[in-house]
Structures are given as structure tokens and as C-alpha cells.
Amino acid sequence: MLAGLGGLSVALTTSLAVAQNSDAQKPKVVTSAPTLNFYGLPGVIDTPSAEALPDGQFALGISHFGGQTRTTVSFQFSPRITASFRYIGIQNWNSDGFETYRDRSFDFRYLLLKERQYRPAVSVGLQDFAGTGIYAGEYLVATKNFIRPFRLPGRAKVTAGLGWGRLASSGSIGSPLGENRPVFNPGDTGGELAVDQWFRGPVSPFGGIEWQYNDRLGFKLEYSPDAYVAETSRGVFERDSRVNFGVEYQWTNAIRLGAYYLYGSEIGVNAQIQFNPKRPATPFTVAGPRPIIVRPSRAENPASYDTAWAASQSAPMILRDVVEPELTEDGIRLESLQVTANRAEARVSSTRYSNLAIVIGRTARALARQLPPSVEFFDIVLMNEGLAMSNVTIARRDIETLEFQPNAANALLAASDLSDAAPRPATGAIDGSLAYPRFSYALGPYFRPSYFDPDRPLRLEVGLSAQAQYRFAPGWLLSGEVRHRLAGNLDSGRLSNSVLPRVRTDAVLYAQAGDTTIENLFVSRQWKTGKNTYARVTAGYLEQFFGGVSAEFLWKPATSRLGLGIEANYARQRDFDQQFGFQDYDVATGHISAYYDLGKGYYGQLDVGRYLAGDVGATFTLERQFANGWRVGGFFTLTDVSSEEFGEGSFDKGINITIPTSWFIGEPSRQTVSTTIRPIQRDGGARLSVSGRLYEQIRSGHITDLNADWGRVWE
Asked: Which residues is 628 bridged to in the sheet?
């Protein structure tokens, strides 16, 4: 079971990158790619190694031995930071009356030292640091790679480390950082950090050897001090040895399988799947652009630079009618065009490309091909749903001369200017003929998963969805979605035991109430209020559980890393049948938000305010975005609700994943697939779900995202 992937079908065909020393000034170390242990992290068998995955790598590990099944999703968030989410099932645990005990946990590790020619890699890690603490432990570990050890074929890795907690439950050599390790008592809620445990109490050595005989076949041998005290005392399995060994086979570039003999008594299996967002499942292809038509020089043909045409009242319409077809064929919508004797402003949005550098490049080509030679400067204003995100000014001569120069993309970037766009088109602009009004619709299946119910870890609802959107003027949107359930078991989940207003935990009652539902139905108006400020108002049935009114204001200059916003909402809880009625519960919510671009694709967000259950607090979010549109991030929310009131999990936390469909299909597309993975959904820290929050709409057209995408401007 691929627990925690939010129902996403991921094409796992990417080659596993080879980890190398990135410092060209020091001797390079040739290493084999990290393999995963039974915890889904780089390691030997049941113990960790010091290696980091290739930057940006996703790893999915599914292992089973001794009545225990572990499913782990790991992500190399940065070159040094690895984060993991794990879901386990333990048979015969006899806890809480379940035949199979299920639990969730998080791991974190940091690469202290990268491997060098004469130095091993060194990492420090926390295992199960936020949960019930079943697998809680800490470690400091080193790993060194060797090529053709003792003249044997292939490669070898040697790992040695010191462990605390689970990794020191036998074979202790002392307690160098403190004798007492407090017994972790998660109480009835779990999810809290056991900081006073970390690196306390007995410490034990562990280690192992990996021998990769060839590109396919590998062998492992390890010494593990984990005594599995809780498991053996409950009869889950018997442990007779500290030595484990196994054999692994690299089935494909992405998939590795293994079989093992563990702790002198158990046979275990492990499936490892790795892929990287940087390398698409299907190679990305884009139809080539039209060639640029270079103007004759002014000296050769001065008459062609005559500006008398600009006085003609019909000129704007004629020019629009020749530019617009080229843009439309390229999947670019011309929102408006204004042309003077030596300057043109084209406001454009894309129906095809999420990479806005391609939009800029192809718009500039179309203008250079069709506008009179006297027009020297192009102002390309990037638009999204009526919002002017930024203005990119390009000199026509640079379009004509730089394409085939060395490092052409960077040369054009240096010669171009990015600035805040005016809220409205320039005087004399005419609208594109296809701009407004616009109607669109979509029919297709929908999937609504639910995870981590102890009775059934994966629940699913499937059905048909009909969506329609009508844009009758710039910034105006009328949108709705109707769903009809065909099959599913969401209606048989656990009923809520929440002591807070049940703003999220009554999902079972919503699933039971009816098969045909209105998922949302709303009207929104959004506009740019000034040079770098934006506003939005949305009213209607905003989400599955709530309707109401939402208003938002955002300050975000196109060239600034910082954005500040404020949102105010009045929400009323919808009837369980999700038709047109409402229940008695209503609430005023709102947040003040700060958004900051940390550089290199990392973004931070802080939201402070009041949530749907009336609790007050803050949500902290850290996200990584890749140039191709992949986004992965984590969040947690702390409010004035105590852990006892919140219930299981203690506080709201989770992982957000957004995948562009172009990554799968290999063709340009603005569609994405998104999911949020929560260990547990409770009522505390629940924020209203509103379509079209401003920062997410305009971010792609501002300086950081444009610079990251700029390499494709000539495509």
C-alpha cells in the first residue's frame, strides 16, 4: 500500500542519480547510489547509514518482517536535509483492541560532512521524533565508499555509528551525554516532541557492510543493537541475534528489491522505489517556435522605419489581427495590445505553458515578426485571471541578435528589465478578440481518498465530476462543481469524538448524507489595486463544508522576495447533504500572512489568525519548488487549543505535494495534481479552503520564478 501519497499515480521510471562530491576543487569520490533500509532511509538493513539521497530525490520504501509492515516516504529536501513520513502496521500488538496496531511517525537527518577522498560522510538523525515514540531513537553515523575492495569486483560501503533509544536497547557502552533517558509517554494524543529524550541514556555501536557486486546484485551484512523489547515482550516475534544479512537486486533504474534474514529468526523483504522531480517520467517536448524575422537596417531601408502608420485609427485593430493568431496557435491568449510608433504593450496569459519564460519568448517573437520596424521596445505584461503580475521589457534588437549567441538565455535576461505592471492596459489598447467573455467546462472522474483510519488505513470515494467556469470580464469568475458518487467507503469511517466545533471531523456524516453534491459554487472578483497591490472577494459555497464570503488584500512587488497579505472571512457550515442549506454554526476567521522567498527554490510562509473552530494561532510552512513546477512542503499549526482538546496528533501538521501533469505526459500543460498528507485530520488549526488565493496566483510571474524558468525563453 502506497500510504501517504494522496492517491497520486506516480510514474516511477527515473534513473537513480549517482551521488558525487560537488566540490570541484577537492578530490572527487566515486560513490554508489544510496540504498534504503527497513525504515525507508539510506541505510544497511535495519540501521542507518550516513549517506544523503541525491538532491530532490523521493524514496518510497515498503518493508515487512516479524509481523511489522513499514511504508515510508522520504524526500531529500536539500542537499543535506532528509525528511521522512512513515506509516506502520504491527500484528498481534494487542493495543486499543485492533488486530493490527497502526502508527505514524516522522524522521529527520542532517548530513554534517560530505564524503571526501580520505574522509567518510557523517550524518546525525532523529528517528520517530514526533509521534507515539514506538521507534524513537537518535544516531550519529559515518559511511565510507571503496572501489574494488581487496581487489574484489564492484564497490563496497562500510558504515559505523552510535545509537540512542531503540538503537541502544542492547550492547550499551555507556551514557556519555546523560544517564537518564526519560520514558516517553505520549498520552492519549501523541504527536508531541520528546526533546528531553534526544541523545540521552545508553549508547550502543552499530554498523554494517554493503557490497555491490555489479550493477544489479548487492549483498548486506549488519550488526544491529535494537533489542525490539516491546515487540518481543508482546510476542510479535522472537529475537535471537544482533546480526542481519541479505541480498538485493536492482530490478530497474528506479526499483530495488531485497530479501533478508533478520535477528536470527525472521525472513524479511524490502521494496525500494526512488525517483527525482528534476527528471520527468516522460521527456518534455515542445514544438519549435517560428523563426524571428530580422528587420532591414535603417541605413539600408530608411522608408521601412517611417512612423506614419501610427496615425491611422485602424492600425491597432490590424496589428492585433495579425499578432493574435500566432499567439493563439502557440497556446497564448492576447488579453490586450497597445502599439505606438516605437513601443508596444502586449498583455498575455497562457492556456498551455506553466513556464512563463516560454510565453515571454514566443510573445516577443510574434511581435518581432508582425509589428512595423519602427517599434523598438516590447512591454510584455504577464497576466493571470485578470491580474497583471509583472512587466518584462525587451528591446527588439536583442531578440534579433542574441538568439544564437553563446549563453543566449542569460544574455537576454541581462538585457531585459522586469518591473511591476500597471493595473490596467495603457491608453489606446484594444482587447484581444478571444479574451472575454470565456466559458469552459470539464467532465471526468474524481477520487477522494482518506488515510490512516485504524480500522481501514485507506478509504476511497470515486465518482463523476462536472465543472464549469464563466469569465465574463477581466478578474470576474463564476465557478461551480457538481459531484456524483459511484462507489466508496468514506461513509463507514469513524464518527467524530472531537470536543471542538466539528469543522472537519464530521466528514463521515457528509459522506453518508447524499450521493449527488455541490462541491462548490461561487463568484469571485479580483483586481490589481495599485502598482504592487492586489485584492480579491469571493462569495458562495466555498468548499465541501463551508460557504460564505472571503476578502483578501496582498502587497507583493514583482522584484521583492517579501509579500504581505491579510484575509477576512465569514463562514457558515453547510448541511451534510451539500446542497443549498446551512447548519447553525458560523464563524468569523481571518489571517495576516507573510510570504518570503528564501532563494534557490525555497519559500517560507507564516499565517497568524483565527481558524474555523474559533481557535487562534499560527501556521508555519516551508516549501521547495522545482523549475518544472513540482512543489513539496511541510507545515504545522499551533493554536490556543491544548493537545488534549485537539485530540489524537496534538496539533495539525502535514505535507503538501503538487505535481505538474506535464511531468507525466511530456507535453506543455498548466494542469497540476495536488494533495495534502496529514497524519490525522482534526478540528483544531483548520483553515477555510478558498479557491484562488492571491499569492499562489501571482508568484509564478515574479522575479524568482521567472529567473528559474528563463533558460527556456528561446524555445
From this structure: none
Amino acid identity at 371: L
Domains of the chain: 58-183+190-275 (2.40.160), 302-435 (no CATH), 438-471+475-704 (no CATH)
- Is residue 496 classed as helix, strand or coil in its secondary structure? coil
The grid coordinates of residue 264 equal 536470527
Q: Are 605 and 594 in contact (CB under 8 A)?
A: yes
Q: What is the pLDDT of residues 283-297, one digit of tens each?
A: 878 888 999 999 998
Write out pLDDT tens, residues 73-123.
999 999 999 999 999 999 887 655 567 888 888 999 999 999 999 999 999
**Neighbour-count burial of 82, counting CB atoms closer than 10 A to its CB (0-12 exposed, 13-18 middle, 19+ buried):** buried
Residue 102 Cα distances to 13, 473, 501, angstroms: 30, 52, 27
Categorize the per-residue pLDDT at 130 as very low, low, confident or very high, splitting at 50, 70 and 90: confident
| pLDDT score recorded for residue 184 | 57
- Between CA 376 and CA 369 the distance in angstroms is 12
Do residues 529 and 556 touch, judged by C-beta distance below 8 A?
no
Looking up cell 520517530 gives: 128
Contact 295, 400 (CB under 8 A): yes
Q: Are 527 and 534 in contact (CB under 8 A)?
A: yes
Largest separation between any pair of C-alpha atoms in the chain? 95
CA atoms within 13 A on the CB side of 609: 20
Spatial distance between the Cα atoms of 265 and 268, rounded to a whole number of angstroms: 10
426 φ, ψ (degrees, to nearest 5): -65, 160
Question: 581-600 burial, b for 16+ CB within 10 Å, e for fewer?
Answer: eeeebebebbbebebebeee
d(CA 521, CA 121): 54
Alpha carbon 218 to its chain centroid, in Å, reads 33
* 3 state DSSP class of 558: coil
pTM equals: 0.90
Rounded-to-integer distance, Cα 532 and Cα 559, Å? 10
Q: Which residue has the higher pLDDT, 691 or 453?
A: 691
The three cell numbers locating residue 472: 465574463
710 CB contacts (<8 Å, ≥6 apart)? 357, 409, 410, 412, 413
Q: Are strands 672-677 and 377-384 parallel, antiparallel or unpaired?
A: unpaired
Lowest model confidence (mean pLDDT) among 18-22, 246-250, 534-538, 676-680: 18-22
Interval 327-372: pLDDT, tens = 999 999 999 999 999 999 999 999 899 999 999 999 999 999 999 9
Q: Beta-carbon neighbour count of residue 466 at 10 Å? A: 15
**Cis status, amide bond into 437, omega within 30 of 0:** yes
